[in-house]
From TrEMBL:
Natural source organism: Actinopolymorpha pittospori
EC number: 2.7.1.53
Broadest EC class assigned to this enzyme: transferase
Family: Belongs to the FGGY kinase family.
Name under which the protein is recorded: L-xylulokinase
Amino acid sequence: MRPLFVGLDTGLTTTRAVVYDDTGTTLGAATARTPRGSFTSEHVERDPRQHWKVAAATVARALEQAHDHPDHTGGRIAGVGVAGHGDGLYFLGADLAPLAPAVLSPDTRAAGLLREWHRRGVLDDAVTHGGSVPFAGSAAPLVAWFAAHDPELLARTRWLVTAKDWLRSCLTGVVATDPTDASASFTDLLTRSYSDRLADTYGVREAARLFPPVVESTAVMGEVTDSAARETGLPPGTPVATGLHDVAACYLGTAGSALHHVVVVAGTFGVNITLTDRPVRSTSVTCRPAFEPNRWTVRRSSMGSGANIDWAVDTLTSQPTGPVHGDRSGGPAVGSAIEHALEEEPTPDAPLYLPYLFGGPVGRPQSAALLGLRAWHTPTDILRAVVHGVTFNHRADVEQLRSAVPTGPVHLTGGATRSRRWTQLFADVLGAGVSVPPGESGALGAAMCAAVGTGHFPDLQAAAAAMCRPGRFVPPRPGAHERIEEAYQVYLHHNQSPPAAVTTAEPSPDRGIPC
C-alpha cells in the first residue's frame, strides 16, 4: 500500500493537520484556532488539555477529508510528524499530565530579569556557547523566573517541554525533544546537547533534570496509543517522529536542506531564517542547530509581525458588523481587510508604525508607536501603516541576516501569503522577487521528518527532492522599491539596531566558538 504521512503543525494562532502522499501531494487538510487562555499585560498562557483536544480534532478532520480524496485509495498512514511554535514552557508531571497553564513565547513576565542579565553581562556567555540571546518568553528566563516566584511548581514538575513535544507526548506517551527546540536556551551550539555551563550561566542548574532527552528530528519516538487513536482517528501503533520547531519546519518544507535560502515567515510571530553549514556567533542574529547534523539555522525573530495586524483589525473594526469581526490572523476576513487597506498607495503624509506591541529586540523600541498621526487619517490609513510597518520590520531583519551570512533566494510563507497585495508589498519592500510555496510548508516539513524516520526516504535531502514543490514567483513592481525606499529610511531612523560583530567557526566537539 502507498504510504501516507501526517504533518501536524501547531502555531501560536493556528493549528494545521495535513495528509500527504510520498510526492508531497495534499490529500486532506484541516485548520483550527490554537486556543489561548489568559492574556494580561505580562502573562500569555494556554490550557494544555484544550490545546491537545483542538489538535486531535484537527487531525481527525484532515483524515476524514483525505479519506474522500480520489488518490487515497490504496494508501495507509505510515507515519506522523509534529511541528510547533517554540520557546515558552509546558509543565508536565511524571504521569505526563499538565500541572499548570502553559506559558507562551509572547509572555513578558521575565522581562525585568532579562534586563538584569543584560546589565550583568550574563548574555555574553549565552551567545558564545548557545548561539543566541534569550528573550523574555524563552525557556531560560522563564525557568529562572519560576524558580524565584513559584518554586513549588518546579518542584512538582518532571518535564519542561515545548508545544510540539507536549502534543507528541499526547500521541505516544513518550517525552523527548529535538535539537531545534532544545537549543532555545540550554544546548551547546556545536555539540547539540545540553550544556551545564549554560544552565549555570542562567543560575538554573537544578532545573536541568527537567529537560527531556534530545534526539534527531527524524527519529521515531513512540507510536500512536489506543487512546490517542480514538481521539485523532490515526491507526494505533502508527510511528511518530520527534519533529521540529515550526520555523525550522517551514524552512524544510519550503527550501528543503538547501543552504542560504531566506524564508520569511510572516505569521503571528515574525521570523526570517536561513540555513548554513557553519555556526554563527552574533548578538544581532540567533543561531541554533538545525534539523540535520552540521547544519545551523540563522534567524531574526520578533513579535513585530502578524500579531500587530490582529490587534489593528480587532481595534479598528470592533463592531459586530465589521468586516473582520470574530476572525483573526490569516483568516479570510482579515485578508480582505488587508487587501482593502493596500488598494491605495500611502500618501506623503501617511503615518509610520513601529510594530512592537509585545516589545522589541535589544536596541529597538520597546513599545509600538504611530508616528505622524493626524486628524484626517482614517482607520484604513492606520491599518495600511501597520501593514507597512510590519513589512519594514521583516526587511530590517532580512538585512541583518544578509550582514551575518551569505543569502540567496527569498521565500515568503505564513498568513501574509493569503493576501495578494501584501505578498506584492513584500516583493516591493525587499526589492527582490519572492517565491510563495504551495500549501502548508510547516506541516510538510513535519511530514517529511516522518517519511525519513519510517525509512521511506534515506534522508531529508531525498525527502525534499520528492515532496517539496516550487512556488509561484512574485517579482517587485517596476519602480515600487524606489518609491517605498524613502519611507523605509524614515522607519530605520526611528528604529535602527546597533550593528554587531559577527564571527564564524568550524564545528568542533571540544571547544566553543572563538571571539
